[in-house]
Predict the structure.
Amino acid sequence: MYQEPARYVVPLQRCSVTQCRLDYGFVLIINGEDDDAFELRIEQPFVLALAVAGLEVRLDPQGDPTALAPALSLLHADLVDATAFEDGRLVVRFAGGNELRVSSSGDYQAWTFAGPYGLRVVSIPGGELRIWQPDGAARAQPA
């Protein structure tokens, strides 16, 4: 993960979605060719922009589970990167142009992104990030 002004980028080239899970959240399990594993858990409505169809769909993991069918198109998709913004938003870009976008929440944890060696990025209530780097140190990021 590297930092740019007002955002943190996790490069995910050579990674693909190997599982989609659904409970009270929507979860993507992402694996790389070096056996690196990542998990993205989304616990609020999010937007999936489908490049080929030229449309954006708003999906809610706590609503009707059948309405999440468009998100299943991400299974086996190759990734480009995940960008966490200091205001708590997340954008995940896929090869081919699809994007998954999650906004922050004022009331609860909107999403969690976990990776190897203890990497964890969490969008906490109020639109802030908490980041645990592989060195284990948690840091608060200004909103």
Observations:
- The CA atoms of residues 82 and 92 lie 4 Å apart.
- The chain is about 0% helix and 50% strand.
- The chain has a mean pLDDT of 90.
